[in-house]
Amino acid sequence: MGNPFNPGAGRKPPYLAGRGKVTSSVKTDMRRVYEDSEGMRPVIVSGLRGMGKTVLLRELDDFARSQGWVAIWVEASKGDSLARKLAQAIYVELRRLRSAERLTGRAFEHALAVLRSFQLKIDPSGAYSFGIDIDPAKGYADSGDLSLDLGDLLGALGEAARDAGTAVLICIDELQEASIDDLRALNVALHNIGQGSAPVPVFFVGAGLPTLPAVLAEASTYAERMYRFYTLDTLDAGAARAAYVEPVEELGSRWESDALNAAIEAAAGYPYFIQQCGFCICEQIEPPAAITVVEVTAGIELAREELARGLYRSRWDRATVKGKEFMRAMAIDDGASQLGDIAQRMGKKSANGLSVLRDRLIRDGLIYAPERGYVAFTVPGMADYIERAEEM
Ligand SMILES: Nc1ncnc2c1ncn2[C@@H]1O[C@H](COP(=O)(O)OP(=O)(O)OP(=O)(O)O)[C@@H](O)[C@H]1O
Ligand SMILES: [Mg+2]
User: Fold this and answer.
1) Ligand 1 centroid, distance to 76 Cα (angstroms)
2) What is the mean pLDDT of residues 330-352?
3) In terms of domain of life, where is this protein from (predicted)?
């Protein structure tokens, strides 16, 4: 029998623990979008690496698809145009729906024509043309102002969905990677389709690192009021217990109680750790034999090694000598580090001289600024890893 645990970026867990509140609240909004055929406040989900943002987004995407929605999925990345990626994803989904004859009729043809205009505007050379054999819709999505054009595109998409008796879900993962101009355009477009005299059934969920809310607010001041924000934190002990217990029961095995407690403690509520520990522990057993402290101890040891390889070492190795020095100075603190302290530990007179280094580490996704004057690691457990690596 296979191992039920599923460690790795974006890998669906066998049991999605402790996220019931968020998912049910967002799904309630989605049902409303469908019933009223108009948008609801867009949602932002943020959290540290490995906290379960992508799998939460996938859960919503699956839900939308199971309801027959038009579901668009984009992963933003640095240096890539978000508009282009969105256009591409919308095209792929529309083509799929067309060949399944799920979307037809005038509103749908119009959405395709608007998509064509949009695409021609963002990429006049046609290098990214994706074979839409249709004339562009004059006067739609061709102003050259990305925020207006994106609004036209989402509006037309929403109309087409409404016409077919359905709605649209747009998920963008790693949203903090998008450029500030793209984020501004997205904010304006979402604002407009929510506010317009003809609201459309389009629902948006974006996910990213804890910096995301601040990045969005920097792009447009009203972003703070426009989105509903959810933060994904570590799982509480009850949820962590469920994340371990449910899959093992499915497997036809069970945990001895001190073994389970040790596994819960080792993971400290961090979803990625739970999957990794669960996986390594399950490798040690033969169901239906129960899991004892022996397997847990061996499993945790293996899980630590796997995480060091997969999660930490790659990040650490990617940093420059200076970057490492900065992070070593951070690792002394239990939580966030004050820039002044880091400067002092690095033997600098003030924190001012560190801003280039700091920005670089933020840009590389290694650290983030939880508040002014502070920095913290984007991966839980990074400080421990650095301290251990230093001893080796
Ligand atoms: N609620 C949960 N219960 C159990 N396991 C979970 C839960 N959420 C996430 N996981 C597991 O944690 C791991 C990381 O999840 P995911 O990739 O979604 O995190 P993320 O926040 O998107 O991380 P990153 O910022 O690196 O993209 C996966 O192996 C996933 O199966
Ligand atoms: Mg992710």
Assistant:
1) 18
2) 94
3) Bacteria
Q: In the predicted model, what is the mean pLDDT of residues 173-202?
A: 91
- Give the CB-side neighbour count of residue 290, counting CA atoms within 13 A: 9
Indicate which atom in ligand 1 lies nearest the CA of residue 207.
Answer: 22
Are 291 and 253 spatial neighbours (Cβ–Cβ below 8 Å)? yes
For residue 243, tell me if it sits in a domain: yes
Per-residue pLDDT, averaged over 364-379, amounts to 92
Read off the tokens for 325.
């020095």
Show the DSSP H helices in 346-381 as ranges: 355-363
Cβ-Cβ contacts under 8 Å for 142 (sequence gap 6 or more): 117, 118, 120, 121, 136, 149
Distance in Å, CA 355 to ligand 1 centroid: 31
| Residues 327 and 311 placed together within one structural domain of the fold | no
Q: Are residues 249 and 380 located together in one domain of the fold?
A: no
Sign of CA pseudo-dihedral 287, 291, 297, 299: positive
pLDDT tens, position by position, 83-101: 999 999 999 999 888 887 7
Q: What percent of the chain has pLDDT over 90?
A: 77
Q: How many domains does the chain have?
A: 3
Q: Please give the pLDDT value at position 18.
A: 97
Domain limit, last residue, from 315, 346, 370: 315
274 CB under 6 A from ligand 1? yes
